[in-house]
Amino acid sequence: MKVKRILVSQPKPESGKSPYYDLAEKYNVKVEFRPFIKVEPLSSKEFRAQKVSIAGHTAIVFTSRIGIDCFFSLCKELRVPISDDLKYFCISESVALYLQKHINYRKRKVFFGTTNRLADMFAVIGKHDKEKFLFVLPENNNEDVMAMLEGCSFSYHTAMMYRTVSNDFAPGEPFNYDMLLFFSPQGIAALMKNFPDFQQGDIVIGCLGSTTAHAVREAGLRLDIEVPSAKYTSLSVAVDDFLKENHKRR
Protein backbone atom coordinates (compact mmCIF):
# COMPACT_ATOMS: atom_id res chain seq x y z
CA MET A 1 0.00 0.00 0.00
CA LYS A 2 1.29 3.43 -0.92
CA VAL A 3 1.56 5.77 2.07
CA LYS A 4 -0.46 8.94 1.49
CA ARG A 5 -1.46 10.16 4.97
CA ILE A 6 0.92 10.39 7.95
CA LEU A 7 0.00 11.17 11.53
CA VAL A 8 2.83 12.64 13.64
CA SER A 9 1.77 12.29 17.28
CA GLN A 10 3.29 15.59 18.36
CA PRO A 11 1.96 19.16 18.64
CA LYS A 12 2.01 21.19 15.45
CA PRO A 13 5.29 23.18 15.29
CA GLU A 14 4.74 26.80 16.27
CA SER A 15 7.40 27.91 13.80
CA GLY A 16 5.61 26.28 10.91
CA LYS A 17 8.80 24.44 10.06
CA SER A 18 9.39 20.71 10.35
CA PRO A 19 11.29 18.03 8.43
CA TYR A 20 7.92 16.27 8.12
CA TYR A 21 6.57 19.19 6.10
CA ASP A 22 9.57 18.77 3.81
CA LEU A 23 8.68 15.09 3.41
CA ALA A 24 5.07 16.02 2.62
CA GLU A 25 6.23 18.21 -0.24
CA LYS A 26 8.88 15.78 -1.44
CA TYR A 27 6.56 12.76 -1.66
CA ASN A 28 3.20 14.51 -2.09
CA VAL A 29 1.80 13.05 1.11
CA LYS A 30 -0.44 14.66 3.72
CA VAL A 31 1.14 15.12 7.15
CA GLU A 32 -0.94 15.97 10.19
CA PHE A 33 0.31 16.78 13.69
CA ARG A 34 -2.03 15.47 16.36
CA PRO A 35 -0.65 14.57 19.82
CA PHE A 36 -2.02 11.41 21.42
CA ILE A 37 -0.98 12.70 24.82
CA LYS A 38 -0.99 15.99 26.67
CA VAL A 39 0.81 17.24 29.74
CA GLU A 40 -0.93 18.77 32.72
CA PRO A 41 0.71 20.28 35.82
CA LEU A 42 0.25 18.78 39.24
CA SER A 43 -1.70 20.97 41.65
CA SER A 44 0.04 22.85 44.43
CA LYS A 45 -1.68 20.50 46.88
CA GLU A 46 -0.18 17.48 45.11
CA PHE A 47 3.24 19.10 45.14
CA ARG A 48 3.07 20.00 48.83
CA ALA A 49 2.24 16.37 49.63
CA GLN A 50 5.74 15.47 48.38
CA LYS A 51 7.23 17.61 51.20
CA VAL A 52 9.98 19.04 49.01
CA SER A 53 11.38 22.49 49.74
CA ILE A 54 12.24 24.35 46.54
CA ALA A 55 14.07 27.06 48.49
CA GLY A 56 16.29 24.44 50.11
CA HIS A 57 18.14 23.80 46.85
CA THR A 58 20.87 25.69 45.02
CA ALA A 59 20.41 24.12 41.58
CA ILE A 60 17.39 23.07 39.51
CA VAL A 61 17.55 20.35 36.84
CA PHE A 62 15.22 20.36 33.83
CA THR A 63 14.78 17.61 31.26
CA SER A 64 12.02 19.36 29.30
CA ARG A 65 10.47 22.72 28.50
CA ILE A 66 7.18 21.79 30.14
CA GLY A 67 9.13 21.17 33.34
CA ILE A 68 10.40 24.75 33.19
CA ASP A 69 6.89 26.17 32.80
CA CYS A 70 5.51 24.04 35.62
CA PHE A 71 8.37 24.95 37.97
CA PHE A 72 8.02 28.71 37.58
CA SER A 73 4.23 28.53 37.64
CA LEU A 74 4.34 26.55 40.88
CA CYS A 75 6.86 28.94 42.45
CA LYS A 76 4.55 31.83 41.61
CA GLU A 77 1.48 30.07 42.99
CA LEU A 78 3.27 29.09 46.20
CA ARG A 79 5.04 32.46 46.42
CA VAL A 80 8.44 30.81 46.55
CA PRO A 81 11.19 33.42 46.01
CA ILE A 82 13.70 32.50 43.32
CA SER A 83 17.24 33.48 44.22
CA ASP A 84 19.41 35.20 41.61
CA ASP A 85 22.16 32.78 42.64
CA LEU A 86 20.13 29.71 41.69
CA LYS A 87 21.86 27.53 39.10
CA TYR A 88 20.04 25.79 36.27
CA PHE A 89 21.06 22.53 34.61
CA CYS A 90 19.31 21.40 31.41
CA ILE A 91 19.43 18.34 29.19
CA SER A 92 20.12 20.41 26.06
CA GLU A 93 20.84 23.92 24.86
CA SER A 94 17.34 24.28 23.38
CA VAL A 95 15.78 23.49 26.77
CA ALA A 96 18.23 25.88 28.44
CA LEU A 97 17.36 28.71 26.06
CA TYR A 98 13.70 28.24 26.91
CA LEU A 99 14.56 29.59 30.37
CA GLN A 100 14.58 33.03 28.74
CA LYS A 101 10.80 32.94 28.99
CA HIS A 102 11.09 33.15 32.78
CA ILE A 103 14.48 34.58 33.77
CA ASN A 104 17.12 37.04 32.60
CA TYR A 105 19.19 34.34 30.92
CA ARG A 106 22.39 36.31 30.53
CA LYS A 107 22.57 37.10 34.23
CA ARG A 108 22.00 33.55 35.47
CA LYS A 109 24.23 30.51 35.76
CA VAL A 110 22.91 28.03 33.21
CA PHE A 111 24.55 24.73 32.24
CA PHE A 112 23.51 22.10 29.72
CA GLY A 113 24.59 18.95 27.97
CA THR A 114 25.59 19.04 24.33
CA THR A 115 24.10 15.78 23.03
CA ASN A 116 20.55 15.79 24.44
CA ARG A 117 21.46 12.65 26.40
CA LEU A 118 21.03 12.16 30.13
CA ALA A 119 24.58 10.83 30.53
CA ASP A 120 25.99 14.04 29.07
CA MET A 121 23.89 16.23 31.38
CA PHE A 122 24.91 14.15 34.40
CA ALA A 123 28.56 14.58 33.41
CA VAL A 124 28.05 18.35 33.63
CA ILE A 125 26.24 18.01 36.96
CA GLY A 126 29.13 15.94 38.28
CA LYS A 127 31.42 18.95 37.95
CA HIS A 128 29.22 20.86 40.42
CA ASP A 129 28.73 18.16 43.03
CA LYS A 130 28.69 20.62 45.95
CA GLU A 131 25.29 21.96 44.90
CA LYS A 132 21.95 20.83 46.29
CA PHE A 133 20.01 19.69 43.22
CA LEU A 134 16.27 19.57 42.66
CA PHE A 135 15.22 17.44 39.68
CA VAL A 136 11.95 18.60 38.13
CA LEU A 137 10.32 15.46 36.74
CA PRO A 138 7.04 14.10 35.37
CA GLU A 139 4.89 11.89 37.54
CA ASN A 140 5.38 9.06 35.04
CA ASN A 141 8.00 7.93 32.55
CA ASN A 142 11.04 9.14 34.53
CA GLU A 143 12.67 5.74 35.00
CA ASP A 144 15.78 6.71 33.02
CA VAL A 145 16.50 9.68 35.29
CA MET A 146 15.94 7.63 38.43
CA ALA A 147 18.31 4.97 37.14
CA MET A 148 21.00 7.60 36.52
CA LEU A 149 20.55 8.94 40.05
CA GLU A 150 21.24 5.58 41.65
CA GLY A 151 24.66 5.70 43.24
CA CYS A 152 25.12 9.45 42.76
CA SER A 153 26.99 11.02 45.65
CA PHE A 154 25.77 14.61 45.30
CA SER A 155 22.86 15.99 47.29
CA TYR A 156 19.53 15.89 45.47
CA HIS A 157 15.77 15.58 45.70
CA THR A 158 13.24 14.82 42.99
CA ALA A 159 9.97 16.70 42.58
CA MET A 160 7.10 15.52 40.39
CA MET A 161 5.51 18.61 38.86
CA TYR A 162 3.55 17.38 35.84
CA ARG A 163 1.93 14.27 34.39
CA THR A 164 1.16 12.88 30.95
CA VAL A 165 -2.43 11.93 30.16
CA SER A 166 -4.27 10.71 27.09
CA ASN A 167 -5.38 13.41 24.65
CA ASP A 168 -8.61 11.66 23.75
CA PHE A 169 -10.08 11.72 20.28
CA ALA A 170 -13.53 13.28 20.04
CA PRO A 171 -16.44 11.13 18.85
CA GLY A 172 -16.47 11.22 15.08
CA GLU A 173 -12.96 12.68 14.83
CA PRO A 174 -11.43 11.16 11.69
CA PHE A 175 -8.69 8.58 12.01
CA ASN A 176 -7.68 7.55 8.53
CA TYR A 177 -3.90 7.29 8.24
CA ASP A 178 -1.42 5.07 6.45
CA MET A 179 1.46 5.79 8.85
CA LEU A 180 1.55 6.57 12.57
CA LEU A 181 4.64 8.01 14.26
CA PHE A 182 5.07 7.77 18.04
CA PHE A 183 7.54 9.32 20.46
CA SER A 184 6.64 7.86 23.86
CA PRO A 185 5.09 4.76 25.45
CA GLN A 186 2.18 6.92 26.61
CA GLY A 187 1.34 7.60 22.96
CA ILE A 188 0.90 3.87 22.38
CA ALA A 189 -1.21 3.55 25.52
CA ALA A 190 -3.38 6.44 24.30
CA LEU A 191 -3.81 4.79 20.90
CA MET A 192 -5.11 1.60 22.50
CA LYS A 193 -7.29 3.57 24.94
CA ASN A 194 -8.93 5.57 22.16
CA PHE A 195 -9.20 2.63 19.76
CA PRO A 196 -9.41 -0.60 21.82
CA ASP A 197 -10.34 -2.57 18.68
CA PHE A 198 -7.51 -1.09 16.61
CA GLN A 199 -6.40 -3.35 13.78
CA GLN A 200 -3.07 -2.38 12.25
CA GLY A 201 -3.37 -4.13 8.92
CA ASP A 202 -1.24 -2.25 6.38
CA ILE A 203 -0.78 0.82 8.62
CA VAL A 204 2.91 1.61 9.06
CA ILE A 205 4.04 2.31 12.63
CA GLY A 206 7.29 4.13 13.36
CA CYS A 207 8.69 5.23 16.70
CA LEU A 208 11.52 7.01 18.45
CA GLY A 209 13.16 5.43 21.50
CA SER A 210 13.65 1.93 22.85
CA THR A 211 10.93 2.26 25.50
CA THR A 212 8.43 3.34 22.85
CA ALA A 213 9.48 0.40 20.66
CA HIS A 214 8.93 -1.94 23.59
CA ALA A 215 5.45 -0.48 24.14
CA VAL A 216 4.57 -1.01 20.47
CA ARG A 217 5.51 -4.68 20.65
CA GLU A 218 3.86 -5.17 24.04
CA ALA A 219 0.62 -3.91 22.49
CA GLY A 220 0.91 -6.66 19.88
CA LEU A 221 1.58 -4.23 17.05
CA ARG A 222 4.06 -4.49 14.19
CA LEU A 223 6.92 -1.99 14.34
CA ASP A 224 7.99 -1.01 10.82
CA ILE A 225 10.37 1.89 11.57
CA GLU A 226 12.48 1.96 14.74
CA VAL A 227 14.89 4.72 15.72
CA PRO A 228 17.59 4.81 16.96
CA SER A 229 19.06 1.93 15.02
CA ALA A 230 22.39 1.00 13.48
CA LYS A 231 21.38 3.00 10.41
CA TYR A 232 19.28 5.87 11.76
CA THR A 233 19.38 8.34 14.63
CA SER A 234 16.62 10.56 13.21
CA LEU A 235 13.04 9.38 12.77
CA SER A 236 12.38 11.84 9.95
CA VAL A 237 15.40 10.51 8.03
CA ALA A 238 14.21 6.94 8.54
CA VAL A 239 10.74 7.91 7.32
CA ASP A 240 12.31 9.59 4.29
CA ASP A 241 14.06 6.35 3.30
CA PHE A 242 10.89 4.33 3.93
CA LEU A 243 8.81 6.63 1.72
CA LYS A 244 11.45 6.53 -0.99
CA GLU A 245 11.09 2.76 -1.23
CA ASN A 246 7.35 2.78 -0.63
CA HIS A 247 6.66 5.22 -3.46
CA LYS A 248 8.64 3.15 -5.93
CA ARG A 249 5.93 0.51 -5.70
CA ARG A 250 3.07 0.55 -8.15
Automatic annotation (TrEMBL):
Gene Ontology terms for molecular function: uroporphyrinogen-III synthase activity
InterPro entries named in the record: 4pyrrol_syn_uPrphyn_synt_sf, 4pyrrol_synth_uPrphyn_synth
GO BP annotation list: tetrapyrrole biosynthetic process
The Tetrapyrrole biosynthesis uroporphyrinogen III synthase domain, residue ranges: 23-229
Tree of life domain: Bacteria
Protein known as: Uroporphyrinogen-III synthase
Species per Swiss-Prot/TrEMBL record: Candidatus Aphodosoma intestinipullorum
